Amino acid sequence: HRMFSIQDEERKRLSQVLHEEVGQAMSALKINFKLLEHYNNKSKTVLDRNTEFQSCVEDCRKIVDMTFKSLKSLTFILKYNILDKMGILEATNYYLEQVSERTPVRIVTASNVNEENFPERVKMHLFRIICEATTNIIKHANATLIRLDFAIDKNNFVLCISDNGNGFNVEDVLEKDKDEFKMGLTTLRELVNIMRGKMQIISELSKGTSLIIKLPFNEYVIKIPGGVKDEKGENLTCGRPPYSKAGY
After folding, report:
1. Could you report the per-residue pLDDT of 142-198, keeping only the tens digit for each?
2. Parallel, antiparallel or unpaired: strands 145-153 and 106-111
3. Fewer C-beta within 10 Å: the chain N or C terminus?
4. CATH H superfamily, domain 85-248
5. Which residues contact 50 (CB under 8 A, 6 or more apart)?
6. DSSP for 153-222?
7. Are 164 and 244 in contact (CB under 8 A)?
């Protein structure tokens, strides 16, 4: 009975993720294809029609790319069954080791959170946040070092993902209508929202970026731990890692 219960829970998790992300992406594509038909039939000049057409095609391409990335991380989880075999923390280290072998980027982790603090239903979303964030950093940041910190801060679980890359102006990126990097941040924010969390981005040009994700301790998200403290007996926090472009 325990085995069937685990399998049923896994099916439910996958069904939820596929519905929320792949299903939404396919719905967006359906709308865009209707727009393409509309633009083609609309009585406009050839130039205007061509501009709108190309813009819509580009949107479709980006949606397909994002969906492919979602499926890629899901198939990685399924292929190796790593979340069930290892747990979220060990699975994260395993995934990051695989990434480090394929790229020149050094990745380090630090954790003061126990595995039992994570309920099963949020592990996949959290793992996918890590996959998406590290992929964005490697692709866009020109970083040589990525650091992940798992910690407890008052009533929140905190994941801090930092890099020593190029950095960027957050407002400028978020104001762009069509930008691959912005779409990656949007995907991260959607994953965080699913877990009723909050996401903060701190970035400076030439000084790297920190992505701080806070998940509340409630029944839906993270189990309240017995108390993770530092040497002074205070709750641990996750701040900006103390390293420069050259490293620690």
Report:
1. 999 999 999 888 778 899 999 999 999 888 887 765 556 667 788 888 888 888 899
2. parallel
3. N
4. Histidine kinase-like ATPase, C-terminal domain (3.30.565.10)
5. none
6. ETTEEEEEEEE-S----HHHHHH-SS-HHHHHHHHHHHHHHHTT-EEEEEEETTTEEEEEEEEE-SSSS-
7. yes
